[in-house]
Amino acid sequence: MADTLGLYTFKIFRYNPDKDPKSRYDTFAVEVRQGMTILDCLQKIKGSLDGTLSFRRSCRSAICGSCAMNINGKNDLACHLQVSRLRGRTITINPLPGYPLIKDLVVDMGEFYRHIAAVMPWLVRRSPCPDRELLQFPADRDRIDSAVNCILCGSCTSSCPQFWFNPRYLGPAALLKAYRFIFDSRDEGRDERLAIVDDRYGVWRCRTVFNCDEACPKKLHPNEAIAGLKIEALKRSV
Amino acid sequence: MLHRYDTVIVGAGLAGMRAALEAKKGGSCCILTKVFPTRSHSGAAQGGIAAALGNAGEDDWTLHMFDTVKGSDYLADQDAVEILVREAPGTIIELEHMGVPFSRTPDGRIAQREFGGHLRQRACYAADLTGHVLLHTLYEQCLKEAVTFYPEYHVLSLVIAEGACRGVVALEILTGELHTFLARAVVFATGGYGRAFKITSNAHANSGDGLSILYRAGLPLEDMEFVQFHPTGFYPSGILVTEGARGEGAYIINGQGERFMKRYAPDRMELAPRDVTSRAIQTEIDQGRGINGGAYVHLDLRHLGPDKIMKSLPQILDLAMRFTGVDALKEPIPIQPTAHYSMGGIPTDNNGRVLLNHAGAVAQGLYACGECACVSVHGANRLGCNSLLDAVVFGTRAGRAVLADLPAIPRGDAPPDSEDAVRKELRLLLDREGNESLAAIRDDLQTGMQKNCGIFRSDSLLRAQLAAIGTLRGRFERVRLHDRGARFNTELMELIELRSLLDFTELIVRGALLRTESRGAHSRTDHPTRDDARWLTHSFARHTPEGPVCDYAPVRITRYEPKERKY
Fold first, then answer.
1. Which position among B113, B166, B274, B510 bears the catalytic label?
2. Phi/psi of residue A192, each to 5°?
């Protein structure tokens, strides 16, 4: 498994406003072995070539969502993408588009998190809970399965042109979160939550370009969820 | 900058956020975390959370307790285990009411699967994403209750005045500024120390910072020599493959096509506890019976059928393809043991109050819960699914202890120089000239720990590692950073994390060297049997100017006398 894949060129977006108001690209040559991920390569660059290179990472197993970035033009998690899966010998890495830049590949996701918080992302119960679990049948659980698996990496919202043009738009990740609760058979906060998403900065700003579905590294379908929410919102108004 | 809260919590995993939901009821409360809350490593737990709900056959808490005590190789404190298992069912129901989307039985109840070392089917789960759904649900509850978060704040030291902890000093990663958080109660929930090893399932963030901070402040650390190796990490990355795979029925196969667990644990086979299974796999590999003689064996899911695999283990299917290039529906997955869980940590009483010494004196205003703490409910070897449970049960209890204690804790002032020492230290690290590379030292440390202080240990290996750590410490003094700026300086963070690793790996090795027996996850080839007469004790390592010193305290045994451990 230690087979070498040879030398790759990494072309990486660099930006540190404390030093230079302008961004630039740096290139690094990395000897890549079979099995190495993009994150492995970034770690190698940081460890042995340039310690100033900044990026977020933690779990390295595609569940924490820290290392989402734009790799060869597509948003993805650096930790689960193997170099051998990419075409060509030059790999271009940019920060996630659409968010304010902080440094190198690190972006400010404050707005993204505020949008998540804005959709009442918690189970609302008005009637009292029993001593035991609330019953939920497997078919009802399946309905929210994909939404539940979202890791908040921000790839989808970052890929959405509507969000680029107007960051007030809740964006696909927050709408997927709203879906996760609106379609949870145990939830009793449906009307309030629908009122939040039934808004010009909510579901109606989605233009169905499907970038979000394509960008999701976990193969989830925020676009489908938004479509489901639109139908519920329409039902609400008739 | 100065901030004042009644309670400051360090760490936003399951334990920290659960504690916050309680502490918030008694006053102002904030959570400091070096990664955004949903990035915490609790989210990487896959298989389940244990409780004797009895949704899949008869079960009760005494059976869960016996399995846990036996799993711990009788080193767990039984009064603490009793609390853990008795509170488990109520805890699961409470989590479900908070919105946790557990997988369900056909009649709508919480589904439960088998797990290693548990003789009943008691692992509540959400496919193979159990930690993920728990972490996100607790984060959502914290949003609902308006808990204040300071994400990407790296806590560096305690504020101590008049012998009591009055808060913490933290580095704001974005700006490089120092902040003092004054608090009447400080809760550490900083997670484990798996990053000490080369092959690990742990996140980059799991560098044991919290342990190092308390150790440097003169507090002891308990049972540090006990590190769990999970039997199934992907080869070669060490990334976790849930025990839930074996809970669903997966086989482990060696290079000769043999289900070799029959020679090590004939009754439980693949569902023996993790220490037993990891030793078995390592033995097969060491004796040349890995796949093609290599350093891995196979985990075979194929006989479970595509429907079950896709429904119950969707994440594993995806990760296997991404990290090993294997389609687990059609081929077996290459796996190896991987450093996974820290049984040792900050000693606490059964309510999360930090112990000042092995005699049981309690520190005022200081609490710990989750993997960074050692209650001890896991003893020498934790059972799968008991860690998420530990984090939630003892996170809750620590939060409630804060509530109970707050009225009696005075509001203190910060010593005017609270940030000075930290600022000086950081300056020193940033300005240091030298020719050593941080990444090279870290790599040497992790490689050495893996080889000398891994699944099998011996006097000579451990002594070699102790010497190596001494050398690495010298090299650490000569690390030159490339990044000397203030803004989002992750290189500086990595250096601080390396310092933590160097602090506590010495305690793991020393503890292991002193403990001349084999118990649970601690296996000495030169002392292969358990020695209850001498070693039915917890170790407490504390800092002295001459180096670490170990004290010992007896194990609390209430219900189950130690017996020979067979599976």
1. B274
2. -60, -45
